[in-house]
Amino acid sequence: MRLLIGFPLAALLWLGFYHSSEYLQEQPRLERETEHLRVRLPVPVQLLYSAGDNYSAANANVFRGLMVTAAVTEAETYRVQGQLQRDAAWLNPWHEDNYYVGAAILPWNGQVAAGQYVLHHAARARSWDMWPAFFYAFNAMYFEHDMNRAAEWAERAALRNARNAPALRSMAAAWYERGDDPDIAIRILQAMHAEARDANFKLLLEARVQRLEGLKALRGAAAAYQEATGQAANNLTQLIGYAGLQALPVDPLQVGYRVDARGVPQLADHAQAVTNSESN
């Protein structure tokens, strides 16, 4: 009996919603309205509108996102687009267009979290596809400054594409190296070295480990210097003689080391990034 009552009621609700939507679509719109997004319906309503088909509901969201032109710079439109693409990723994480649009548009328009949500879902669902994993890794590095997570997902991308694996693993090694904990980075790079087959790649990993060993020694000396003097070091030379540091370490990659604004030794390129972020 409940099924006999429930089905006609659901059908009537869906028909009512459908005709209401058709009516709204026929109403006059402001000029360029199709380029802006204002409304994101709750997921249950999206499913109701799509007769329960989650793939159709996801397609509708992606289509709405594709209608936004490159000329639109309004933050609210991209906020709504981020919500729509998150919904699409939940409804159909395998959707290829959704993750490509998410990677190309969302993070570059202030919707990093939404873009990463879309890419993470796609990377986990599309286990054969290197690109969502790679885009997720890139965003973790470039927008979120999480080098360890970036390197982890670059390695996952490498496992999915033998042709691009060497380049992806080299990228992962560089991002691991730029993480903020030398001990963790050294262990990861050593594990990668043990698994590496390419001789040139193994040499590069050895150089990166040596570089991080130098950073570790400098940080130990910096901690000893601060404890002894009560102030942070202003330059690397001040650290000689502390914590057994007899001379400044030589960077085999010839990039060098620097002291950031907090007196903490960093890899030269990473220190510059920290200084810039603190000055903004």
UniProtKB/TrEMBL annotation:
This is Tetratricopeptide repeat protein. It comes from Atopomonas hussainii. The lineage of its organism: Bacteria, Pseudomonadati, Pseudomonadota, Gammaproteobacteria, Pseudomonadales.
